[in-house]
Amino acid sequence: MRYNVSQLLKGHVGETRHYQLQNDIADLDPAIHPLTDLNGAVDMIRTNEGILVRANLYSTIELTCSRCLGAFAFPTRFQIEEEFHPTIDILSGAHLPQAQDTDTATLIDAQHTLDLTEIVRQDLTLALPLAPVCRNNCQGLCPVCGKNRNQEVCDHHDDDVDPRFAKLQALLDESKSHD
Ligand SMILES: [Zn+2]
Ligand SMILES: [Zn+2]
Q1: Are residues 48 and 114 in the same domain?
Q2: How far, in Å, from the CA of 165 to the mean position of ligand 2?
Q3: Strand, coil or helix: 1
Q4: CA 77, CA 173: separation in Å to the nearest integer?
Q5: C-alpha 84 – ligand 1 centre gap (Å)
Q6: Would residue 122 count as lying in a domain?
Q7: Calpha distance 115→87 (Å, rounded)
Q8: Nearest CA to 53 among 98, 91, 105, 111?
Q9: Is residue 115 within 8 Å of residue 8, measured between CB atoms?
Q10: What are 22-59's pLDDT values in tens digits?
């Protein structure tokens, strides 16, 4: 996800480049398990200060259901809107001072390469649910015997719950009531 933006940096404010992105993101983040490439459209717009990147990206990620612990495919789409700043002046070659709090993920390097990788990783992470569920009516695991209630019927009813599991049951009931 690296783009040489030297021509765009030499351009006028408002000048735009349009790219179709298709990238293998298998190695993007050990916590993210993609089932497909990352795809989408990327616009780069020359601003006074640098380059504004607007992207609309999608992929399908494998998640683990927080109720039944089963793996499932989660199609996700997310937007990026981030201004990147050059570290070297494109015309003079001079080093450009950076603000103290500049996120290094949005710096264009000395070879005028704009690398989207870290911003994609951050925004994709934010696009994934914290407590994913494989389907709205996922029955989860039986709190007594641990069987997956989506696949198997067991003899336990919610009333049979061992008091030691009562707290877990209360949490499960609470999560169900939020559907
Ligand atoms: Zn589930
Ligand atoms: Zn059971």
Answers
A1: yes
A2: 12
A3: coil
A4: 30
A5: 40
A6: yes
A7: 13
A8: 105
A9: no
A10: 999 999 999 999 999 999 999 999 999 999 999 999 99
- Residue linked to tokens 């997956």: 148
Structural domain count, the chain: 2
Ligand number nearest CA of 132 is: 1
Residues 13, 46: contact at Cβ < 8 Å?
Answer: yes
Residue 32: domain span:
2-127
How far, in Å, is the centroid of ligand 2 from the Cα of 138?
15
pLDDT band at 160; cut points 50, 70, 90: low
113 assigned to some structural domain: yes
**Would you say 75 and 57 are in contact if contact means Cβ atoms under 8 Å apart?**
no
Asked if the structure places residue 91 within a domain, the reply is yes
Q: Please report the DSSP string for 92-157 in residue order.
A: T-PBPP--TT--GGGEE-TT-EEE-HHHHHHHHHHHS-SS--SSTT---B-TTT--BTTT---S--
The pTM assigned to this predicted structure is 0.81
Same domain, residue pair 100 and 169: no
